[in-house]
Design goal:
Blueprint: H1 2-6, E1 35-37, E2 40-42, E3 44-52, H2 60-73, E4 78-85, E5 92-98, E6 101-108, E7 113-121, H3 129-137, E8 141-149
Antiparallel strand pairs: 1-2, 3-7, 3-8, 4-5, 5-6, 6-7
Helix pairs in contact: 2-3
Length: 153
């Protein structure tokens, strides 16, 4: 957390990005961002996306732009993003922090592989982010594992 604070990446106060009106202390006025789909109520959809035989895995600025575009396409609200470029292999690790959660990526250019983590709550559709990423990474094989997090019994 200290490293993020030094970079100015830590918010000092909780964000009110999800508030539709003036803040209220009443529990009845709080909006529930859980999702109801197929008769199930849950916090959000979590996609683990493996991109094999991928390209363009070593440019943090291009990856940042693409993941931000993917977030917006999925209906998410971007709060901030941060990416790190590793040497000597050129891999990139980074995250786009969303009001609805996050998109993170770790790339291995030497293996033509990227691991992407997409978690979104609310009305967002994380599946819409995949074609946007595929346009940049041009993966020969895309493997997606979906989990519904925070399932209510």
């Amino acid at each position: 957390m200290n490293a993020l604070a030094q970079l100015g990446m830590v918010s000092e106060l909780p964000s009110n990005i999800q508030m539709s009106s003036a803040p209220s202390s009443s529990d009845e006025d709080r909006k529930d961002y859980f999702v109801e789909r197929d008769g199930m109520k849950f916090a959000g959809t979590h996609l683990l996306v493996d991109l094999w035989e991928a390209r363009n895995l070593d440019d943090p600025e291009q990856i940042d732009r693409t993941l931000c575009e993917a977030a917006v396409t999925a209906g998410a609200t971007i709060l901030h993003s941060h990416f790190h470029h590793f040497t000597p292999n050129g891999g990139v690790s980074g995250v786009v922090v969303l009001a609805e959660s996050h998109i993170s990526i770790h790339t291995w250019p030497e293996r033509n592989f990227a691991a992407v983590d997409i978690f979104m709550c609310g009305a967002c559709d994380p599946h819409l982010a995949i074609p946007v990423m595929q346009r940049l990474f041009q993966a020969g094989r895309v493997v997606v594992d979906e989990q519904r997090r925070g399932r209510v019994a």
